[in-house]
Structures are given as C-alpha cells and as structure tokens.
Amino acid sequence: MTPNSQQSRQPKGQPTGPKRGPKHGLTRRQLLSRGMAAGATFVVGAGFVASTDAAWAMETANLQPKTMATLIQMARDIYPHDHVGDAYYARAVKGYDTPEGAPDIEAGIAALDAAAQGKGFADYLSMGWERDRVDILRGMEDSAFFQQIRGGLVTGLYNQKEVWPLFGYEGESFTQGGYIDRGFDDIDWL
Questions:
Q1: Edge-to-edge strands of the sheet including 42-45?
Q2: Which residues contact 127 (CB under 8 A, 6 or more apart)?
Q3: Short-list 144, 136, 156, CA closest to 90
Q4: Domain coordinates in residue numbering, the chain
Q5: pLDDT tens track for 134-175
Q6: The whole model's pTM is what?
C-alpha cells in the first residue's frame, strides 16, 4: 500500500465514501431477500404489493399491503387457474382498495388470519398448502365477507379481456358476424 492511497489517509475504523443520511423505506437488498424467502409469492412493502415471479406490482391506497396480498391469494384459492397469472387476480381485487370498503375488507382478512392461527399457522399467507387454505375458506363461505369477494371475482376476474384468450373465449360474436359463420363448433381448446 502506498502512502498516497485513499485507505492510508482514512483513520482506522472510519467509513470510507460519502456520508449518507438515514435510510427510509425498503432497500433493494431487503426487497430481494424478502422475495427469496421460502415459498414467498408476494413481496409486501410500505404501500405496495409485488410479485416475486413476474414483472408486476400494485400500490395500495386504503388497504394494508399485506391485506392486499392476502386478498390476491384468497382470490386465487377461490378461483384457481394455474395458467392465469397473479397480475389478473390483483386487477380483479384492486376495486376493494377504497376508503368505503377498506374497513370491511381489513376485518374480513383479520378473520381469515384468525382462522389460520386457529389451525396453527401465523396467518393465511403463511399456509403453504392450497388444501389447508381452501379448508379455511370453506369454513367461512357463508359469511358476508366471503360472498362479497367471491361475487366480485366473477366479474372482476372473468370480465378482463386479457384473460379471455387464456380460456379460449374470443369475446362476443355479434360484431364479428355471429357464431354460425365463425366456427361455433370449433372447440379444439377443450
């Protein structure tokens, strides 16, 4: 080491490089480490939910990010389609992130987490097996909360035009001449 090197001019134990102020929020390292946790599907941060396996994220305004992540998982468990990405489920439940609806959704997710804790899990999201999560949902399927989410998903998920090709649905046919002249019996996707 030469006497003119940067390291020789620094007193021992002093940090090198520019001074940095206090860190706020989530660092890149924290984000990546949370995403690499065993079985993690979502990364939950201050005001956002992101997928660990695809390039999408969503901000939350009224719901807690963990609540939104649980809602997305709940949607996937109610209407499971392995070939439909989480981003479509996230769009389907985004409508619940309103000032009016947030208290009921937070209470419903708290009840869902309490049911999971009753089965020995930390919360609904930490339940690794779909079978265990579906058992919890079956236990609350008569509740107003469950019926609200299930009913909203019918239109929230299946009315997305981007999802239709994944199910082989080409959309309404009237503007394209009807089904008779367009191969109404062409169901090679089945």
A1: 42-45, 48-51, 57-59
A2: 116, 119, 121, 133, 136
A3: 156
A4: 66-167
A5: 999 999 999 999 999 999 999 999 999 999 999 888 788 778
A6: 0.67
